[in-house]
Amino acid sequence: MSEKEKIDFREKLDKALKESFFKMIDLKKKLGQTVIIADENGKPIEVSAEEAERIAHAQS
After folding, report:
1. In the chain, how many domains are there?
2. Greatest alpha-carbon span in the chain
3. Three-state secondary-structure class, residue 47
4. pLDDT by 10s per residue, the chain, length 60
5. pTM of the predicted model as reported, rounded to 2 decimal places
6. Range of 55's domain?
7. Residues 6+ apart with CB under 8 A from 19
8. Whole-angstrom Cα distance, residue 53 to residue 25?
9. Hey, how many other C-beta atoms are within 10 angstroms of the C-beta on 52?
């Protein structure tokens, strides 16, 4: 596999993972569920799906 093919594969995988994540967040929002994320120190915290979406969009 060439370097270009590896880069293309990684970009395709990254796009698919982001799409899947946001679909999961959207479903959790519709169901009124929460999401477990990690804070700056790696400790798990529970936030609403709306807050998780806001955080994810800010970081992407």
Report:
1. 1
2. 45
3. strand
4. 899 999 999 999 999 999 999 999 999 999 999 999 998 999 999 999 999 999 999 987
5. 0.76
6. 3-59
7. none
8. 6
9. 21
